[in-house]
Design goal:
The chain is an alpha+beta fold. It folds into 3 domains: 235 residues, no CATH class; 297 residues, no CATH class; 128 residues, no CATH class. It is 46% helix and 13% strand. The chain contains 26 helices and 24 strands. The strands form 6 sheets. It has a 7-stranded antiparallel β-sheet. A hairpin with a 3-residue loop joins strand 23 and strand 24. Helix 22 runs antiparallel to helix 23. The protein starts with a helix and ends in a 13-residue tail after the last helix.
Length: 827
């Protein structure tokens, strides 16, 4: 019984299993860069070791392969269940797993890279890596196809590198490649040992066979490893690199209609994007232009922003916004500024324009205006366009009415006249004829406010405040319920004693731009709330005081709403960097989010809570008793990026006034896609030829001269068969083989002489008392094959090159359950 243990251990293939999971651990290790910490390391290693132990023990028992897979799957599930119950004690395994899975998905959706390592996200990492290890171990060890197991390893390695957005550390590739090559070597040793045990040749030294096979395997491993390393380093550098993004969806080169804002309003990866490809180029006489606004939304739910539902109508030339009307009604000094976009990279229907927009000129491109988001939409992306906008003058004070708490007109001016129409409506008017209340036939009352909003009071007394088509009670004044208590308490503390909306907004802005807050693309680690669960995204930011523009803008929106000021989130781009010729260039990393507050007397007004290191100076609006000079936004709010040189500014395009793109800018992505496709096609077409070359090399480099001669002759037989010269129907002597091929080839004398020398050397290797030297065997075989190629139709030559019989034979031998193909020297 004791003597059976070594054989049982060998059947378990422990070393192979450890190499397989080691390769998986190497290719998945960069996933840690996507998380803030690595709490999954210890449980992951334990889980992988569990797969090794269970798989090896079951294999040692000589059971079918499917039972090994089933046992490992049960072990993986059990290990995950035990870990999940440790994270959530008192819950069943199913409940704990489902709860953590939901939490992991929520973390992925709501947090930017590097995401906090919540237990739910760790569960997803453990489960995904464990399933990958199960797949690689099953293919490479249980089914003994180590070469095929390299495919999922390569795919995961490529996916991990593209997810991080940076070059993959060579260490991860080298470790995985080394483990995979060692696994190939292990299986090669067993294959040679089995072949030697089954061999009936007694004249060959078994030690020479084994050592020679190991030598060939080691040489091949080094060649394959070096080739893979060269490809891994050279190929990514040769192809255009398209950085990953969350906010911007790139569909092509930076021409009109190549990028657009998606539904995911999380800007983290775009802010970190170092690509210099222009999204927009424009000119303006405004020394401190505002951000270029694309859209705005009031809808925030479950820790994220959602686009507003569009009610756009056709546009003409001028644009009317509530802000324009308020500024005119309250006598606020404004000036009209213009931007001329010379290169547009936004895709229809989106358009980037400053706010408040007063007019647009898109040429012949039809456009729409959405009164809810106050965004311009286009049917087709214009290459160039012009937009005018209003800008506050150098005010030191604002009128008393600006920022005053909104009141019902019914409470401000008395009703002096009631008018009725034939349908049962009543209109209550003030002395100057201004409507202060409308009464519908069913008793519903509409009461305008001084800020333009309207309160709708139902017959049962419930009231809803709306304005400009937006339901302020349910949207623009809605405070996120998960953070409402914290937000309202903080808003009360910050704005204590203030009543003017501008003063309140400035105080909130000052608080968020204070030294306690840090601008960072990396969010802080999760913080547990009173209930033990991680805080919601907004509460997390207010607690840790670390985030980027989306977090700062969201916090100001909710704090303003908590004080009764309607607020929304706007998205677009910072003004970009100014070149030597005055042209401003906007790139992906200029993506920005900021709050807009609905201020009485000003309408929707931009504020900037994001620190100046990112967004430049904050807009300032003076209030009575707080007279100060109004600072302007910095001329270049794009921090940390060099200004393009004059040589980088393209010449104007005479066709449309836009800047012309270089050939690579226009065609780089297409060239990259074509090159990638051709590289993939070439790699696919080279699989069979490379397998054939590998098999012929192995045959020609046998451990002794006899096998080398046999290998050369076998290469001649299969090569001629590929070129249309079949072997004899029955086994023949070397002289008979020579006569057969001489008849079939009808070759010239030099070729026939080479064939005669090769067959004579084969005869001596088989029957002479002492084996001959290798001599010119290889040259003679190549002479015969070259002559045949020159006299074979082109189509047949192409088929022989792409689908050689040696290659298909070798690949079939790699399939699970296949035996190594024996060499038939006759055929």
């Amino acid at each position: 019984m004791t003597a059976d243990w070594p054989a049982a251990v060998a059947r378990g293939r422990w070393v192979d299993s450890l190499l397989a999971v080691g390769a998986v651990l190497a290719v998945t290790w960069p996933i840690g860069g996507l998380l803030s910490t690595r709490p999954w390391t210890v449980p992951l290693v334990a889980l992988l070791l569990l797969l090794v132990v269970v798989g090896s023990l079951v294999r040692a028992a000589r059971v079918p392969a499917w039972l090994v897979l089933l046992a490992q799957l049960l072990a993986l599930t059990s290990g995950l269940a035990v870990w999940a119950q440790e994270q959530r004690p008192g819950e069943s395994a199913v409940t704990a797993l489902s709860t953590l899975a939901v939490q992991g998905v929520d973390t992925i959706q709501h947090y930017a890279v590097p995401a906090p390592a919540t237990p739910g996200l760790v569960l997803l990492v453990l489960a995904g890596t464990g399933l990958l290890a199960l797949l690689v171990e099953a293919v490479g060890v249980t089914f003994r196809a180590a070469a095929v197991a390299g495919v999922p390893l390569l795919l995961v390695s490529a996916a991990t590198a593209s997810s991080t957005g940076t070059a993959l550390d060579p260490r991860y590739f080298l470790l995985a490649a080394a483990a995979w090559l060692l696994l190939l070597t292990q299986q090669g040793r067993r294959t040679l040992a089995r072949a030697q045990a089954r061999s009936t040749v007694t004249t060959v030294d078994s030690g020479a066979v084994t050592s020679g096979g190991l030598h060939r395997l080691s040489v091949t491993a080094r060649v394959m490893g070096l080739s893979a390393l060269v490809l891994a380093v050279v190929l990514p550098g040769a192809l255009p690199h398209l950085p990953p993004t969350v906010l911007l969806d790139r569909a092509g080169d930076p021409q009109a209609g190549s990028v657009s804002f998606t539904d995911t309003l999380d800007l983290a990866e775009d802010l970190a994007d170092r690509s210099t490809a222009p999204v927009l180029r424009y000119r303006t006489d405004d020394p401190a232009p505002p951000p270029l606004r694309v859209s705005a939304t009031t809808h925030y739910a479950d820790g994220r922003w959602y686009p507003a539902e569009s009610v756009a109508g056709p546009g003409d030339t001028e644009v009317r916004t509530p802000t324009q009307l308020f500024l005119a009604a309250h006598g606020v000094e404004v000036s009209t500024q213009t931007v001329t976009v010379t290169q547009n990279g936004m895709r229809a229907p989106q358009l980037a324009v400053p706010y408040p927009t007063s007019a647009v000129d898109l040429g012949d491109v039809p456009w729409t205006w959405d009164p809810v988001s106050e965004a311009v939409g286009v049917e087709a992306a214009p290459r160039t366009y012009e937009a005018s906008y209003l800008k506050l003058g150098p005010l030191t004070t604002l009128p008393d009415s600006v920022g005053a708490p909104p009141q019902r007109l019914l409470d401000v001016v008395p009703v002096t006249e009631v008018q009725e129409d034939g349908g049962g409506w009543e209109m209550h008017l003030s002395r100057d004829g201004q409507p202060v209340e409308f009464v519908q036939p069913d008793g519903t009352r509409q009461r305008p406010f001084t800020d333009g909003s309207v309160e709708i009071v139902a017959p049962d007394g419930t009231a809803v405040r709306t304005f400009w088509g937006v339901d302020a009670a349910d949207d623009a004044l809605h405070v996120d319920p998960r953070s409402a208590d914290r937000v309202r308490a903080l808003a009360t503390e910050i704005t204590a004693g203030l009543t003017n909306q501008v003063e309140i907004a400035l105080e909130i802005q000052r608080y968020l731009r204070g030294p306690d807050f840090t601008y960072s693309l990396t969010l802080a680690d999760p913080v547990a709330g009173p209930d033990g669960e991680p805080l919601d995204p907004l509460s997390h930011f207010l607690e840790t005081k670390q985030g980027y523009c989306t977090q700062f803008a969201t916090a100001m929106v909710m704090l303003a709403r908590a004080t009764g000021i309607p607020a929304r989130l706007a998205v677009g781009f910072l003004p970009g960097s100014e070149g030597l010729d005055g042209t401003r260039t906007v790139v992906a990393s200029d993506a920005h989010a900021w709050p807009e507050l609905y201020v009485n007397g000003l309408g929707w007004t931009r504020f900037e809570p994001t620190p100046s290191s990112r967004a430049g100076s904050a807009p300032f609006y003076a209030t009575p008793g707080n007279e100060e000079e109004v600072p302007t936004v910095g001329a270049d709010p794009t921090a940390g990026r060099p200004t393009p040189s004059a040589a980088a500014v393209d010449a104007l395009d005479p066709r449309g006034g836009g800047t012309s793109l270089g050939w690579w800018d226009r065609n780089g992505r297409t060239v990259g896609q074509v090159a990638l496709g051709l590289a993939g096609l070439a790699a696919l077409l080279s699989v069979v030829p490379l397998a054939g070359a590998w098999r012929r090399w192995r045959l020609r480099h046998g451990p002794d001269v006899t096998q080398q001669i046999e290998g050369e002759w076998a290469g001649l037989v299969t090569g001629l068969a590929d070129l249309g010269v079949p072997p004899p129907d029955e086994a023949a002597t070397p002289r008979g083989l020579r006569d057969h091929y001489a008849r079939e080839l009808a070759a010239d004398p030099p070729t026939l002489e080479a064939l005669t020398r090769a067959s004579a050397r084969l005869e001596a290797a088989r029957y002479a008392p002492r084996p001959p030297s290798l001599g010119t065997m290889g040259e003679d075989v190549r002479t015969v094959l070259d002559w045949r190629r020159r006299h074979t139709p082109r189509g047949r030559r192409l088929g022989a090159a792409l689908l050689p019989a040696d290659g298909t034979t070798h690949l079939r031998s790699l399939l699970p359950g296949s035996r190594p193909a024996a060499v038939d020297p006759v055929r």
